[in-house]
Amino acid sequence: MVDFAFNIWESAPDAMVGFVPRVHWPEKSNDDEGKYYKYSGWWYVWWTGTYSMVLSKAAFFHNKYLTLYTNGVQSSIRQFITKNRNCEDIAMSFLAANATCSSYMG
Known about the structure:
Blueprint: H1 2-11, E1 17-18, E2 21-26, E3 37-40, H2 42-48, E4 53-54, E5 59-60, H3 64-72, H4 75-84, H5 88-100
Helix pairs in contact: 3-5
């Protein structure tokens, strides 16, 4: 399984390829103008077959994203991650998608 994922990543080295898919979508509300998102875990992905990100805890990605993460993530995001000790994997997934100008809804 790991070899298969690595081979997939080798064919698209700018992508994140991993084993922990998640899904997010804009919260539908007139009050917040799409500023908030809903987030669902593995069960939603399993039932629907839809995902929009891969978490970095079990993923292959190019090491250039580590430099981008260290130097390019907004300070407000870094502060949130540091304060809550959470969401660094989501930030990395969005960083990689933004860097490649890609998005995917599986």
